[in-house]
Amino acid sequence: MPGISPIRPHLLITGRPGIGKTTLIRHVAERLAPQAAGFYTLEVRDAAGRRVGFEIVTLEGQRRLLAHVDFQSPYRVSRYGVDLSAMEAVAVPALERGLAAEAITLLIVDEIARMELFSRAFVRVLEQILASPKRLIATIQQSAHPVIEQIRARADVELWELTPTNRSEVLARLLERLRAS
């Protein structure tokens, strides 16, 4: 694909929970919208402001609850039950459409973490993205997981850590990097 460097085309954003990874990825998606496809996750809060779940939102505007404290599921992360059908009905098809579309050059994933990795279909489409000429920009959990370690070890992946110190400058640097290659 013209204009994409064969060296480290995939950018992964990591950082501690609450540092602003999702906010960063949403800003990237907004600025590169016509050439991007994928999804991000939003926290779901109750009336008292407590986090009770997570919702998937595609760049096309589809939404579905991914995890909730009230979900009964064999797939659990902390206190959240995970609805795999949400990944497989909303997030995976959004990524597949992006892979198939010629106009899409960038695939956005928020996030690569235990919740999402329960889905074999998600892991499969992630592998297809990494093998394709399209770029991936994704948030990725810091803690270890076999799939995450395999992705981090790839020669075509560059890891960026978001911190309180660099948070305000990373968006501009990231957009510059994506536009330059």
Structure report:
It is globular, with a radius of gyration of 16 Å. Helix 1 (21-31) packs parallel to helix 6 and helix 2 (84-100) runs parallel beside helix 4 (120-131). It has helices at 21-31, 84-100, 114-117, 120-131, 146-152, 167-180, and strands at 10-14, 36-45, 51-58, 63-68, 76-77, 80-82, 106-112, 135-140, 157-161. The protein contains six helices and nine strands; from the N terminus they run E-H-E-E-E-E-E-H-E-H-H-E-H-E-H. It is of the alpha/beta class and 181 residues long. A hairpin with a 2-residue loop joins strand 5 (76-77) and strand 6 (80-82). It starts with 9 loop residues before the first strand and ends with a helix. A nine-stranded mixed beta sheet has the order 5-6-4-3-2-7-8-1-9, sandwiched between helices.
Distance between the termini: 11 Å
Overall form? globular
* Chain-averaged pLDDT: 91
Helix content: 25-40%
Structural class: alpha/beta
Radius of gyration, taken over Cα atoms and rounded to an integer in Å: 16 Å
What's the order of the H and E elements?
A: EHEEEEEHEHHEHEH
Secondary-structure map with pairings?
Blueprint: E1 10-14, H1 21-31, E2 36-45, E3 51-58, E4 63-68, E5 76-77, E6 80-82, H2 84-100, E7 106-112, H3 114-117, H4 120-131, E8 135-140, H5 146-152, E9 157-161, H6 167-180
Parallel strand pairs: 1-8, 1-9, 2-7, 7-8
Antiparallel strand pairs: 2-3, 3-4, 4-6, 5-6
Helix pairs in contact: 1-6, 2-4
